[in-house]
Amino acid sequence: MNKIVDVIYERPATCDTRHAWANIPDEPSPQRRAELQDLIRKSLKRHNAVLVSHYYVHPDLQDLAEETGGLVADSLEMARFGKQHPATTLVVAGVRFMGETAKILSNEKTVLMPELEANCSLDLGCPVDAFSAFCDEHPERTVVVYANTSAAVKARSDWVVTSSCAVDIVRHLHEQGKKILWAPDKHLGEYVQAQTGADMVLWRGSCVVHDEFKAFELAEMKRQYPDAKVLVHPESPAEVIAMADAVGSTSGILKAAATLPAKVFIVATDNGMMHKLRHNNPDKIFLEAPTAGRSATCRSCAHCPWMAMNGLENLYAALESGTNRIEVSAQLAERAKVPIQRMLDFTAARAGASGIVPNIGAA
Ligand code: SF4
């Protein structure tokens, strides 16, 4: 495999802000890295385990997942894959709601994560008590929640969606005359509302990474690279989405990069995505969309601090010791599974839906 240069990992000394509170592992030495990769390969086999990694985690964990028969994917595909795979242990390199979703769908399996503190600002910003009170204020509405929520919030919902199927599912509900209560990401909710015309009330959460993309600086960057296409994840602010050539989930962004006729792309999502984008498209150039203003010392630091908590060392430790297990009570899992299964059934029936839309500038 060609050497792939990844954004944050090639300049670890530039910015230490991300280390201020997040428990982010140090990069291992080249020797220890190779040793850990080998140990993990053997340990996965010994424990009848499979590694499932999200596109935003460290490139080493993405490569290892694929190389050992696991998967690197978005949260929808991670859930689907984990459920169908015959392994008795799922190792989820991502954030907590991904591990919980895997456990809800496969309650009989052991689900391990490298770091149990790896969370998500959307999940943290939508506590179940406040969310339930919000639902109680709107009893006539169908409750649709993003996958980035706790098991308890999912259990209180009618539908779970990911960014790759949110528009299709809400459009389907809108066509049935349903009014929607949406949580927790306000930007994605506004985008889905604009795309579908559905009647939606929104919880006002946001992603700490995507919320930071800046439209003014992006316009400047577009002037600098006039032929570049702009790919945007819909958790980004509306004014950034309005400048996109394509809007989509992580899978949608990958598809757009492969199919749009351009050499240079400006990408507004977590820069963990650069690994797969560059690997799949070695002849194309991918640039990070700006998250910082003119006076800032860096142009972009679009990397999720919780995703960054996943590393080779803590993955190996969790696998060997069997600690860092995700537990969801059988009763809660049963309730949370219903809206997740609805999503899986809906998307399976519509297999082939692209998960990406050309931008109409309406969001
Ligand atoms: S990138 Fe944003 S949405 Fe994804 S896990 Fe991190 S905080 Fe949550």
- Portion of residues within helices: 40-55%
**Which structural class do you get from the secondary structure elements?**
alpha/beta
Shape call: globular
CATH superfamily of the largest domain: NadA-like
Question: Which strands sit side by side, in order, in the main sheet?
Answer: 12-11-9-10-13
Bound small-molecule species: iron/sulfur cluster
Straight-line distance between termini: 39 Å
What's the number of domains?
A: 3
Low-confidence stretches: 1-8, 10-14, 353-363
The profile of the biggest β sheet is:
5 strands, mixed
| Number of helices in the DSSP assignment | 15
Rg computed from alpha carbons, rounded to a whole number of angstroms: 20 Å
CATH class assignment of the largest domain: Alpha Beta
CATH topology of the largest domain: Rossmann fold
Find the count of extended strands (DSSP E, 2+ residues): 13
Order of helices and strands: HEHEHEHEHHEHEHEHEHEHEHEHEHHE
CATH architecture designation of the largest domain: 3-Layer(aba) Sandwich
Strand percent estimate: 5-15%
List keywords for this structure.
single chain; 363 residues; alpha/beta; Rossmann fold; 3 domains; five-stranded mixed beta sheet; four-stranded parallel beta sheet; 15 helices; 41% helix; disordered C terminus; binds iron/sulfur cluster
Summary of the model, kept short:
The chain has 363 residues and is an alpha/beta fold. 41% of the residues lie in helices and 14% in strands. The strands form 3 sheets. A 5-stranded mixed β-sheet has the order 12-11-9-10-13, with helices on one face. Strands 2-1-3-4 form a 4-stranded parallel β-sheet, with helices on both faces.
